[in-house]
Amino acid sequence: MTSLPLIYISGPFSHPDPVHGTQENILKASRVSLECCKAGWAVFCPHKNTSGFQHVRDVPYQFWMDMDIEILSRCDAMLLIEGWANSPGASREFKFAQAHGIPFFFVRDG
User: Fold this and answer.
1) Is the separation of the CB atoms in 81 and 29 below 8 Å?
2) Contact, 75 vs 8, CB < 8 A?
3) Residue 36: φ, ψ to 5°
4) For residue 44, how far is the Cα from the chain centroid?
């Protein structure tokens, strides 16, 4: 079995418009994830992994952040999508990647 490199997709999840804005952020991350798959990467996309979970109130926000950092720590690289710098979660993930020598790349819309 061949081992594929694993990339972590990071970008904004939440949005001031919790219905359409959050869904747009998830869709954007989904599109980027598919492009990474086509390029030969195994992909972890927290947007897709937790889509809909933003409505769950009995799991603290910090749990999701800790889970994402745990998964990021096992990845070969990180891809930051547009808007990541305005996202507290994505900014935290970026700082973690920098501190732990995880290579990171940036993508803009399109």
Assistant:
1) yes
2) yes
3) -65, -40
4) 7
